[in-house]
Design a protein that fits this description.
Two copies of one chain form a homodimer.
Chain A (H helix, E strand, L loop, with lengths): L11 E7 L6 H17 L4 E6 L10 H7 L4 E4 L10 H4 L9 H10 L2 H9 L4 E8 L6 E3 L13 E3 L5 H7 L3 E3 L3 H10 L4 E2 L4 H7 L7 E4 L8 E7 H5 L3 H35 L3 E4 L2 H21 L1 H21 L2 H11 L3
Helix pairs in contact in A: 1-10, 5-12, 6-11, 8-10, 11-12
């Protein structure tokens, strides 16, 4: 066949600010997987340097950085920016939200990506999925918590998003502490509990020694999506092939992160159980009270933020259908597999 | 910065043979998603024409086609080639195997892709994931089946892989019938039951009218992987950037297919239930007997095929860890969500 006209692609150099520290290797590493894929696909003509949290700007300053154009893109969890507008949380995870697969379905073939990008447009950004951890664990507790009464006054380190407001309604006193300082706070008893991610990441921080009651599930993070946010002007300036390359590379990174967590968590969990960790489910009483408290927070957000209200209505309607379907083939298959000895 | 040396990428034209007919639009369409991504990322310099099942070669002749180099690649379900060697089935789905996420984890960060590609090397091919349907349904039955005794002599249309052998051990008489002829066979009573895919695809074939008992789960397809097989010589002849583009585009297609099924199945299921379909779970008796029969088939395959034996041992060890982990955070989150009114 005829060779198409030769045209040289201009060299493109971008910077990506991550919200994550390098030791959180699975999450942080997804940005490197992304950048490597872009470089390989473009034959080295499009290079993106990846900068760990704090290197170019504070970890939670990355959205401002992208909006202002000081970096072309970032890798972060949208719920960190809940304070700007609660609608950010829906793009990552809300308590009793969707699992990883359901979230993908909403984003890709429901209205999810479209609605979120309309909203992110207010910040001069567009988003692509950049990973998922799967359902996280509910965290490490110095003492057992069986009832809602056990939560009253409990000082608990929590991550981003709505969970702090939901927990506060149940009497928990949310604490904001960087990952590196959690161990010491638990050891000293400055805090009573802390949630981080899941077995693979948690094991490295050694919480088992100081707070051996390891609860599940992290009902506030059933399938948290990590995102790439890209400055729209920078994106629009790309050639059509580089746009397609960026989009595909985000997918490569997103799939890779979840597969990596799924492959790594089981072994870490086994080792934790071997180290005498007490693996405990949250009681139905606690889950039910948490779910009820979450509905109140949703309603408060409906009143506070029209963006939340619009996006949440679509999210919840989609979720209802998803859960009804996952109850059937997928749910029954999984529950049967979990009931037998392989 | 300095622009890298300009070099013209030669135009590349490939042909892809699909095993699927166009009306199976979600599965068939994934090959088009793939080809469109390759074209966009390469700026039109790499074009892949997609040919529906039967257009260039018979739907189940595509592995021979790739091996012989009459096409550069195909899009198919590896278990169709179970007759060549049972190890093919492990690359797609085996009864009581892994779900879609677990399969991805094994392929990408366990030994899955490495072991399967060693095996596929015997056919001059390499593989990439090219989609997943999620857990399929167990099929349509003219009459209720409650016990293993109810399965004796039952003529059931089944797809590929090991399920026929497992079902035969329970007295079922497996039938091989193309999709387009199932409806009539059920209507006439030539067969008693038929499995196809899930609500979205099944609804279009109208089985509800002639076999209204719709069972779940399809325990033989907990997370069937659809694959792209590529002729190794053709792949090796690609430039490094085109190799990277092909790899990323397979991921885009794979993620898109599962998200599309997850988005489409719930609405179809609702409509089926509205049309008086009787949605029924397989009884524990039937599941337990099927699981036992599957173990026998696994053992027979261990004796027959050293390739099966090697790959299955790794698959099963990985699966044990996966299921133990999914029982915790992910499983408890899903089961709680399925227990409440959203």
């Amino acid at each position: 066949g005829m060779a198409p006209a030769v045209h040289a692609q201009a060299a493109v150099r971008w910077r990506l600010a991550s919200s994550f520290p390098k030791p959180l290797d699975t999450i942080y590493g997804a940005a490197e997987v992304f950048a490597n894929a872009v470089k390989a696909m473009s034959g080295g003509k499009f290079e993106i340097s990846v900068h760990a949290g704090g290197e170019l700007m504070p970890p939670f300053g990355v959205v401002d950085g992208v909006q202002q154009g000081s970096v072309e893109m970032c890798h972060t969890v949208p719920y960190y920016f809940y304070g700007k507008n609660p609608a950010f949380a829906i793009g990552a995870a809300i308590p009793f939200g969707m699992n990883a697969r359901q979230m993908n379905a909403w984003m890709m073939h429901g209205n999810g990506r479209k609605l979120m990008n309309e909203f992110y447009g207010n910040y001069g950004m567009l988003s692509y999925a950049g990973g998922n951890t799967g359902t996280q664990m509910g965290g490490w507790f110095r003492k057992e918590v069986k009832t809602v009464a056990d939560l009253k006054g409990l000082k608990m380190r929590l991550g981003g998003g709505l969970v702090g407001e939901v927990m506060a309604k149940m009497g928990v006193v949310p604490q904001s502490i960087p990952g590196g300082e959690i161990y010491q706070a638990l050891e000293k008893g400055t805090i009573d509990a802390a949630e981080w991610v899941g077995p693979y990441d948690d094991q490295k921080l050694g919480f088992a020694k100081v707070a051996p009651h390891y609860y599940y599930p992290g009902w506030w993070e059933g399938g948290p999506e990590v995102d790439f946010f890209i400055n729209r002007k920078a994106f629009d300036a790309l050639s059509p092939e580089n746009k397609a390359i960026v989009e595909a590379a985000t997918t490569v990174a997103a799939v890779d992160m979840l597969a990596k967590y799924d492959a790594r968590n089981p072994e870490a969990l086994k080792q934790l159980i071997g180290a005498k960790v007490k693996l405990l489910p949250f009681s139905k009483e606690i889950l039910d009270a948490s779910f009820k408290a979450a509905q109140q927070v949703y309603e408060e957000n409906d009143a506070k933020s029209p963006e939340w209200k619009k996006i949440f209505a679509d999210f919840r309607a989609f979720q209802r259908n998803q859960v009804a379907w996952f109850r059937v083939a997928e749910g029954r298959f999984d529950s049967y597999m979990q009931s037998i000895k392989l």
